[in-house]
Amino acid sequence: MYTLFAETLRKLRIEKGLSQKQLGDMLYIDQSTVARWESGLRLPETMMIPRLVKCLGVDANTLFNLVEGSDFFPNVIMVDDDEIILSHALNVLKEVLPDATITGFIWPQEAVEYAKANQVDLAILDIELGTASGLDLCHTLLEINPCTNVVFLTAYPEYSIDAWSTEAHGFILKPLTPEGVKEQLKKLRIPYPAGGAEA
Q1: Contact yes or no for 122/74 (Cβ under 8 A)
Q2: Which residues, including other chains, have CB under 8 Å from residue 139's CB and lie 6 or more apart?
Q3: Which terminus of the chain has a lower count of CB atoms within 10 Å, N or C?
Q4: What is the pLDDT of residues 111-169, one digit of tens each?
């Protein structure tokens, strides 16, 4: 459930004097879609964010109630079959997102089972996972929760074309750095703030 977003959207819509139908008409979508957002069942697709902020006259941080002091604590997973790289990456993520719940996985299937039981806000995936593929894992995670932000991490820039053919939201070359993470956080569907040291 996306309660914070749902409450914020409803409040901003009412303040603008708009009905769900009127907001839907402005966004060129059905009223039922707005109703699902306000019920906390769904989040807008990425392409809808600029339209929403324009219609409501706010910035994305206000819309998603993610200003400093918000009680939004993202659930982040990292999947890499190299234990040394995974350990380093988890330390970087903890530095940048000190309030997040961060869990690492070597085996993709363990990440899938975790995602079935928990709302994953951000998944950082290696593309080559032994005999498995991070591209396939991306599809699976998005089938479980279409609102999961997926960022690929790889040592091979030539994979970027394949990565962008998925519904991933970002691409980082190894090694993972605080600056690279912070840059990707600005591009996510839900732009939540980075903590830790300034870049």
Answers
A1: yes
A2: 166, 167
A3: N
A4: 999 999 988 989 999 998 988 999 999 999 999 987 789 999 888 776 666 666 666 77
What domains can be seen in the chain, in order of their start residue? 3-63 (1.10.260.40), 75-185 (3.40.50.2300)
What's the length of the chain?
199
Buried b (16+ CB within 10 A) or exposed e, 57-94: ebebbebbbbeeeeebebbbbbbbbbeebbebbbebbe
Partners of 155 in the beta sheet? none
- CB-based contact 1:39 (threshold 8 Å): no
Mean pLDDT score across all residues of the chain: 84
Q: Nearest-CA neighbor of 111 among 134, 87, 94?
A: 134
Q: Is 28 exposed, middle or buried (0-12, 13-18, 19+ CB in 10 A)?
A: exposed
- Residue 54: strand, helix, or coil: helix
Task: Estimate to the nearest angstrom the gap between the alpha carbon of 136 and the chain centroid.
Answer: 18
Chain center to CA of 182: 13
Structure tokens at 70: 């918000």
> Which amino acid is present at 158?
E
Q: What percent of the chain has pLDDT over 90?
A: 48
Q: Is the sign of the CA dihedral 177, 182, 185, 186 positive or negative?
A: negative
What radius of gyration, in Å, describes the C-alpha atoms of the chain?
17
Task: Please tell me whether the overall predicted TM-score, pTM, comes out greater than 0.85 for this model.
Answer: no
